[in-house]
Amino acid sequence: DTEVTQTPKHLVMGMTNKKSLKCEQHMGHRAMYWYKQKAKKPPELMFVYSYEKLSINESVPSRFSPECPNSSLLNLHLHALQPEDSALYLCASSRIQGYEQYFGPGTRLTVT
Amino acid sequence: EDKVVQSPLSLVVHEGDTVTLNCSYEVTNFRSLLWYKQEKKAPTFLFMLTSSGIEKKSGRLSSILDKKELFSILNITATQTGDSAVYLCAVEANNAGNMLTFGGGTRLMVKP
User: Fold this and answer.
1) Residues 6+ apart with CB under 8 A from B81
2) Contacts of A43 in chain B (CB under 8 A)
3) Taking the CB of residue A14, how many other CB atoms lie within 10 A of it?
4) How far apart are CA B67 and CA B62, in angstroms?
5) Residue A34, exposed/middle/buried by CB under 10 A (0-12, 13-18, 19+)?
6) B102 and chain A: CB distance < 8 Å anywhere?
7) What gap in Å lies between CA B101 and CA B20, rounded to an integer?
């Protein structure tokens, strides 16, 4: 299994909803990342987990809450989002921090 | 602040042409430079370069890094319509987070 999977592929949510994005990899990678990508822009790093511990939080608002329940799984919990949070959310993983990152297909989020 | 600049911003060529994409960077404690291809969704890993002057090759794609002049090029020979994509350059710094700083990308369109 050499891929990163993400669910759902698309998500539409209202500003009062609570939803979660899920990312999974079975490559034995110990670093996992969340990125946000707006149209025609490069990905922007949000969070890094290394060995299931939060390593980096790039000053992301608290309405985004990451969670790493085990080494294969990374969640992003969403609550009280704003329309400007609409974007493609990409998950990536690497063997450990410092190795090449492999990206999942992303979740396209629309906040109404 | 770390900076990665790609040029050109966009490029239109015909099948069979050869293209050269450029990436220049200013990064404290450089560790590696990565090239990704992004079509509709997730960036796909192409190359990771850490040493100057050593060409990496994969089929019609090749890339080389110049650590003295702080740039890298990505060459695509005999282009095909399937090469149409955004090509992202990212630089990793040897800091606590080993974060990637992405360039703005080069949008390549290959016409039949």
Assistant:
1) B15, B110, B111, B112
2) 43, 88, 102
3) 10
4) 17
5) buried
6) yes
7) 21
Alpha carbon distance A10, B47 (integer Å)? 29
What CA–CA distance (Å, rounded) separates A61 from A28? Answer: 29
Q: Token pair 């090749």 is at which residue?
A: B62
H or E, element range at B57 = strand B56-58
- State the DSSP code for B88: E
> pLDDT for B44-102, tens place per residue?
999 999 988 889 999 999 999 999 999 999 999 999 999 999 999 999 887 656 678 89
Q: For residue B106, which residues of chain A lie inside 8 Å, CB to CB?
A: none
Please name the residue that has the structure tokens 């239109």: B12
> B residues 34-53 near A, CB within 8 Å?
34, 36, 41-45, 48
What's the whole-number mean pLDDT along residues A25-44?
93
Q: Would the CA dihedral through B32, A55, B44, B17 be positive or negative?
A: negative
Residue with tokens 């998950």: A91
Q: Does A104 contact B at CB distance below 8 Å?
A: yes
Q: Kindly state whether B108 is in contact with chain A, defined as any CB-CB distance less than 8 angstroms.
A: no
